[in-house]
């Protein structure tokens, strides 16, 4: 058995574990099950983490459905998932080390991303883990890795947000948005959050200077130095009208759809147009790494970033958690307690 494979393990086996698995791609309710499987073994450069909490992220939905199709070419399995266990974010305790691991010891409390984290144990690359923020619970820490890293890279690297700039966050009440509002604010920007009606107070509580109801206000007529778009499908032409003459648009994500392109047409359009206009328009794929996790842990421990955990659900409720996420009603993040 390779380390990617998780055979079904009989109940009571000492090397078994509970995990959320799917053996084929499909709708969450049809394919996702809580089963007993073998514990994974850490490969070279990996550690085995006893998962205490796992964050629920949009990426998990893509990995359950196998859509858009190009994702399957990225090593996740063409016809069926290579690793049946789902989940990316984790916080937990290192219980075993693979060959060559230098940065961690057994017993270290860590957070970051791993391979199949909706489980009692998960493998993780040591380069995608950092010590758990000292002031955060496992549940709070598990909410951070993918969404926090994405928000940090959107604000700092792609938005290049500077103190005093006007920043608009679209989808401010979602996972990435809730981190982006706080990180932009802690960078000294003046932040406007565009959100759904039921999340206005929530986004205000994150520190946004101005909060707008996306159903009532649509896109505001004022101009922003940086627009970070994490939700919906506002056309690039409309987003550009919300920018100052040399402003920056970062499309983090948005409406998904289409089995092939998965709704990335706006991102492609913005990237192709950018060289020909004064605006900087673009998108990016976040790269989880230990250095950024350490930055995020520092922000959490200094009180400048508070992971917004809407609800903690038990591991077996992962299908319900993914359904809630897709319904768009989650304030910030959902976390599974393992
Ligand atoms: N580029 C990358 O590397 C990267 C990494 C992670 C995620 N993503 C993508 O980024 C997007 C956000 O991820 P997430 O984890 O934050 O998802 P999420 O937690 O589901 O948040 C998305 C938010 O978008 C807002 N939204 C939904 N429909 C909208 C509409 N019609 N108009 C305006 N806003 C709308 C909602 O926020 P409000 O209720 O506040 O309006 C929703 O909470 C997803 O598309 C995800 O796939 C990209």
From TrEMBL:
SMART domains: PKS_ER. It holds the Pfam family ADH_zinc_N_2. InterPro entries: ADH-like_N, ER, GroES-like_sf, NAD(P)-bd_dom_sf, Quin_OxRdtase/zeta-crystal_CS, YIM1/Zinc_Alcohol_DH_Fams. GO terms for molecular function: oxidoreductase activity; zinc ion binding. Signal peptide: none annotated. Keywords: Oxidoreductase. It comes from the Bacteria. SUPFAM superfamilies: GroES-like, NAD(P)-binding Rossmann-fold domains. Residues 27-336 form the Enoyl reductase (ER) domain. PANTHER family: ALCOHOL DEHYDROGENASE RELATED (PTHR11695), RETICULON-4-INTERACTING PROTEIN 1, MITOCHONDRIAL (PTHR11695:SF294). This is Alcohol dehydrogenase zinc-binding domain protein. It comes from Kineococcus radiotolerans (strain ATCC BAA-149 / DSM 14245 / SRS30216). The lineage of its organism: Bacteria, Bacillati, Actinomycetota, Actinomycetes, Kineosporiales.
């Amino acid at each position: 058995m390779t380390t990617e494979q998780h055979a079904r393990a009989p109940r009571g086996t000492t090397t078994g574990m509970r995990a959320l698995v799917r053996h084929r791609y499909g709708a969450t309710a049809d394919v996702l099950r809580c089963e007993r499987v073998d514990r994974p073994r850490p490969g070279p450069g990996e550690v085995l983490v006893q998962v205490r909490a796992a964050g629920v992220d949009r990426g998990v939905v893509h990995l359950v459905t196998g859509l858009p199709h190009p994702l399957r070419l990225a090593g996740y399995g063409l016809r069926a998932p290579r690793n049946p266990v789902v989940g990316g974010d984790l916080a937990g305790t290192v219980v075993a080390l693979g060959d060559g691991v230098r940065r961690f010891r057994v017993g270290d409390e860590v957070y970051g991303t791993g391979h199949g984290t909706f489980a009692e144990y998960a493998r993780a690359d040591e380069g995608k883990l950092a010590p758990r923020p000292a002031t955060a619970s496992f549940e709070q820490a598990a909410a951070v890795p993918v969404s926090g890293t994405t928000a940090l890279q959107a604000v700092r690297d792609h938005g290049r947000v500077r103190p005093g700039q006007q920043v608009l966050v679209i989808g401010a009440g979602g996972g990435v948005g809730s981190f982006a509002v706080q990180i932009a604010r802690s960078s000294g920007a003046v932040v406007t959050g565009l959100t759904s009606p039921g999340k206005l107070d929530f986004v205000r509580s994150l520190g946004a200077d101005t909060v707008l109801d996306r159903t009532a206000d649509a896109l505001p007529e004022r101009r922003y130095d940086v627009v970070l778009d994490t939700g919906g499908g506002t056309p690039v032409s409309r987003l550009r009208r919300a920018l100052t003459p040399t402003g920056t648009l970062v499309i983090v994500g948005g409406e998904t759809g289409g089995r092939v392109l998965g709704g990335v047409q706006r991102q492609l359009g913005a990237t192709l147009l950018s060289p020909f206009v004064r605006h900087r328009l673009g998108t990016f794929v976040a790269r989880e790494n230990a250095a950024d996790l350490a930055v995020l842990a520092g922000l959490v421990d200094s009180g400048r970033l508070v992971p917004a955990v809407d609800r903690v659900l038990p591991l077996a409720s992962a299908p319900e958690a993914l359904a809630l996420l897709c319904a768009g009603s989650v304030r910030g993040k959902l976390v599974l307690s393992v």
